[in-house]
């Protein structure tokens, strides 16, 4: 018993050290930022979107852009994370790995139980890609733009 | 330089540890001050007598047996290897916990990056490797030429419109 009591802390300490290392490794995981933007034909634009405005205008054709939701969180590799998008939608992000300085991930946009789009993308590290949701109820209502940024 | 200033630097001066200009300054002061000059001479004499004493003692030590003993230990250590150092009586549960933790570390760590090829990717470049859209929704892919930003546009008819 005495011998057991002496050796037990060795295994326990090793386990704790390795677990701490695991926690440290997950702390260095991918950081994912999802910004939901309402694009409309007219009105003011948010200052934080000014650098993106010309790009957004070229791509979606609208003139005014306002942030309606912003969320940034660390994501563990090979672990699915769900980001809430206004309008009853969800953006599922599953980071798979790094390839050629780019983040390989599966992105799925859901509207209720329906999957609007499910894609595997390779996005440049610290790069931004966009998802647009057009509800097809006329251009006056505008569109929702989801800006997805991934950074290792 | 005053005597008080020189006194603080004398130790370093005798050991030649001062930077060049300061060494020169202390030497100049000692040249013009008999007290400091005497202190320098006393210190130098003490230093050399200490040196002689230590050298004498070192010469008296027999180091011939040290290397064979060290060599013998190295050979023994090599034979034992890495696993020889693991405590022999490590409890099973401890080993199992360590193995599980190691597995967790391997599972959660960042996947190793694949070999890097030199490419001139733009900051926002995105490559779409697979894309599936739901029935009834239209998907368009647009790319901004200037920044390389990719937009995947989904036209999602409302549930009432889709029926």
Give a description of the structure:
The complex is a heterodimer of chains A (152) and B (163). Chain A is α+β, with helices and mostly antiparallel strands and 152 residues long. Helix content of chain A is 22%, strand content 50%. Chain A has 2 helices and 8 strands. Chain A has helices spanning 2-27, 53-60, and strands spanning 30-40, 64-75, 81-85, 89-99, 102-111, 114-124, 128-134, 143-151. In chain A, strands 2-1-8-7 form a 4-stranded antiparallel sheet. Chain A starts with a helix and ends with a strand. The model of chain A has no long low-confidence stretch (mean pLDDT 84). A two-stranded antiparallel sheet of chain B has the order 2-3. In chain B, helix 1 packs across helix 2, helix 1 packs parallel to helix 3 (34-60) and helix 2 (20-32) packs across helix 3 (34-60). Chain B starts with a helix and ends with a helix. The interface between A and B is large, with 62 and 54 residues. Strand 6 of chain A pairs antiparallel with strand 1 of chain B.
Into which percent range does the helicity of residues of chain B fall? 40-55%
The total of beta strands of chain A comes to 8
Helix and strand element order of chain B: HHHHHEEEH
Biggest sheet architecture of chain B:
2 strands, antiparallel
Oligomeric organization of the protein chains? heterodimer
CA-CA gap between termini of chain A: 48 Å
Q: What is the average per-residue confidence, as pLDDT of chain B, rounded to a whole number? A: 78
Q: What is the structural class of chain B?
A: alpha+beta
Shape of chain B: elongated
Largest interface (CB < 8 Å): A-B, 62 and 54 residues
The Cα radius of gyration of chain A reads 21 Å
> What is the straight-line distance between the termini of chain B?
99 Å
State the helix count of chain A: 2
Q: pLDDT under 50 segments of chain B (min length 5)?
A: 159-163
Beta content of chain A comes to over 45%
Q: Enumerate the spans of chain A where pLDDT stays under 50 for 5 or more consecutive residues.
A: none
């Amino acid at each position: 018993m005495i011998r057991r009591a002496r050796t037990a802390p060795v295994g326990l300490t090793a386990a704790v050290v390795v677990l701490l290392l695991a926690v440290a490794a997950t702390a260095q995981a991918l950081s994912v930022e999802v910004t939901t933007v309402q694009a409309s034909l007219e009105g003011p634009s948010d200052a934080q979107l000014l650098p993106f405005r010309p790009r957004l205008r070229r791509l979606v054709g609208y003139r005014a852009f306002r942030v309606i939701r912003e969320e940034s969180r660390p994501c563990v590799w090979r672990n699915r994370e769900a980001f809430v998008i206004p309008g009853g939608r969800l953006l599922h992000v599953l980071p798979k790995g790094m390839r050629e300085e780019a983040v390989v991930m599966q992105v799925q946009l859901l509207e209720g139980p329906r999957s609007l789009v499910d894609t595997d993308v390779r996005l440049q590290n610290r790069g931004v890609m966009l998802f647009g949701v057009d509800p097809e109820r006329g251009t006056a209502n505008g569109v929702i733009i989801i800006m997805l940024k991934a950074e290792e | 330089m005053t005597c008080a200033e020189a006194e603080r630097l004398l130790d370093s001066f005798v050991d030649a540890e001062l930077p060049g200009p300061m060494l020169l300054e202390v030497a100049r002061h000692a040249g013009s001050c008999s007290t400091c000059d005497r202190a320098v001479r006393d210190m130098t004499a003490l230093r050399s007598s200490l040196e002689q004493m230590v050298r004498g003692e070192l010469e008296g030590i027999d180091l011939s047996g040290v290397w064979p003993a060290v060599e013998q230990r190295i050979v023994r250590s090599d034979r034992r290897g890495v696993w020889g150092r693991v405590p022999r009586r490590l409890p099973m549960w401890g080993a199992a916990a360590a193995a599980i933790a190691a597995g967790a570390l391997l599972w959660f760590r960042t996947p190793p990056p694949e070999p890097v090829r030199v490419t001139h990717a733009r900051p926002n470049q995105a490559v779409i490797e697979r894309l599936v859209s739901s029935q009834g929704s239209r998907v368009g892919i647009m790319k901004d030429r200037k920044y390389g930003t990719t937009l995947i546009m989904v036209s999602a008819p409302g549930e009432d419109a889709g029926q």
